[in-house]
Amino acid sequence: MFVTGPNVVKTVTHEEVTSEELGGASTHSTKSGVAHFTAANGVECIQYLKKLLSYIPQNCEEDAPAIPYTPSAENRPALTNIVPENQ
User: Fold this and answer.
1) Distance of CA 33 to the CA centre of its chain
2) Residue 81 to residues 73, 74, 78, 87: CA-CA distances in angstroms?
3) Quick check: 58 pLDDT over 80?
4) Cα angle value 66/55/71 (rounded, 5°)
């Protein structure tokens, strides 16, 4: 008998988790880094795909689309102290 998924977690850590919490879309897009986007449904997913595909050329002979860049408040002092100096 093989124990898998939520049963493994319960056996090892005595914590109860659902299959979705263990490895669903939300987990992979917010914690594991396996996915970058999630969509609520198929229509939203197709809209994301259209937007993503708009950033790349249609073929190797075309240049990538140029999107205007507007500088903004890019100084983020809170990031300065994330890594301790002694590391």
Assistant:
1) 5
2) 18, 16, 6, 12
3) yes
4) 50
